[in-house]
Amino acid sequence: MHALVYTQPNEMRIQDRPYPDVADGEVIVKIEAAGICGSDMHAYKGHDPRRQPGLVFGHEFAGTVVDSRDPSMRSGDRVSGNPSIVCGTCDNCLQGRSNLCTQRGMVGMTRPGAFAEYMSIPAATLIKLPEDMESDAAALTEPAATALHAVNLSQRALHRPIQEGAVLILGGGAIGMLAALLLKRYGVDRLAVVELNAMRRQSIRDHVGCEAIDTGQQPLPESSFDLVMDCVGAAATRKAAFSAVKAGGVVMHVGLQDWASEIDMRKLTLGEIALLGSFCYTLADMQATVDALHRGVFGGLGWVERRGLAEGPAAFGDLAQGKTAAAKVLLKPE
After folding, report:
1. Among candidates 175, 223, 217, which has minimal Cα distance to 198?
2. Region 96-104: what's the mean pLDDT?
3. 191: burial class by Cβ within 10 Å (0-12, 13-18, 19+)?
4. Quick one: 304 exposed, middle or buried, by C-beta within 10 A (0-12, 13-18, 19+)?
5. What is the pTM assigned to this prediction?
6. Are 196 and 262 in contact (CB under 8 A)?
7. Tens of pLDDT along 143-192?
8. What does residue 262 show for φ and ψ, rounded to 5 degrees?
9. Paired sense of beta strands 245-253 and 225-230, if any
10. CA nearest 56: which of 19, 101, 107?
């Protein structure tokens, strides 16, 4: 079968790979669409030691089961799923917070991922799709669930309903775009997204209908937002988040670009600012997200770009160089 393989930093190649083995409790999924994630781009640039050359990336997917070794799934079932493979027995798993499992592995990291014609995966991680749900929408389940999980956690920490406040999103990639679309649907009308790519800013204006800011040209107002979602996670965006948040507000940290940086602890303390982290999603989040995508809660997919799997090397290159307006590129095996 054909697969898109990470061969060295800043290089992806189409290679022939063996049809995957299927163990007890697992299935083979014929991939119909798979999304390129920001973490895939981070690894592509050689910044993730967990993803070594020779690996097939890809953890955002939709497809059809073609072989099953688990009674819960049958050939022909259409699925998306949670790429995290969790133990199911640790305290966090037993409490329903499987996203915090300390023993988790991951498709596209610890085992071959979805940038291929076929992929093996444990059946327990999969979610069955409505029969009439488009694969392109279903392939957005993973990033959309990340956005939904972060927005829902943020709402619990806010002192007033989110619709009453002003919200700033730092980063107009897929998570930022999906969070903005969800917040619009929730009734947030004072919403702005910071994005440095001019093409993406226009896409945000066109598809979300909110303000899109280039901080190189327009400085952010200080202490003006009730909720700031950092979907980049860089030292500069953390600093910007604390500058922009109001006293009593919430900073939701989602991105993972930089591991450490200074934050304004004086403002956090004197302003009683809540700093929260959000990691991935639970299976319940993913099920809710499939339903939301199917019902059109996130709107249309005009901001998503589709390319064939064979175009994968060029797609990674274009994303790395900022040559596409798309916040999400889906790769589709021919």
Report:
1. 217
2. 89
3. buried
4. buried
5. 0.94
6. no
7. 999 999 999 999 999 999 999 999 999 999 999 999 999 999 999 999 99
8. -75, 145
9. parallel
10. 107
The pLDDT assigned to 303 comes to 97
Residue 29 to residue 7: CA distance in whole angstroms: 24
Q: Is the pLDDT of residue 102 over 90?
A: no
The pair of three-digit structure tokens given for residue 245, joined into one six-digit string = 């948040």
Residue pair 143/255 in contact by the 8 Å Cβ criterion: no
> Distances from the Cα of 115 to the Cαs of 58, 107, 164, 273, 330, in angstroms?
5, 11, 42, 41, 10
Domains of the chain, earliest start first: 2-140+301-332 (3.90.180.10), 144-277 (3.40.50.720)
**Residue 324 CB contacts under 8 Å (≥ 6 apart), including other chains:** 199, 305, 315, 318
Single out the residue of 192, 187, 263, 261 nearest to residue 224, CA to CA: 192
Question: Rounded to whole angstroms, how far apart are CA atoms 331 and 311?
Answer: 8
Residue 261 has pLDDT above 90, yes or no: no
Given its phi and psi angles, is residue 76 left (phi above 0), alpha (psi -120 to 50 degrees) or beta?
Answer: left
Q: Evaluate if residue 262 carries a pLDDT over 90.
A: no
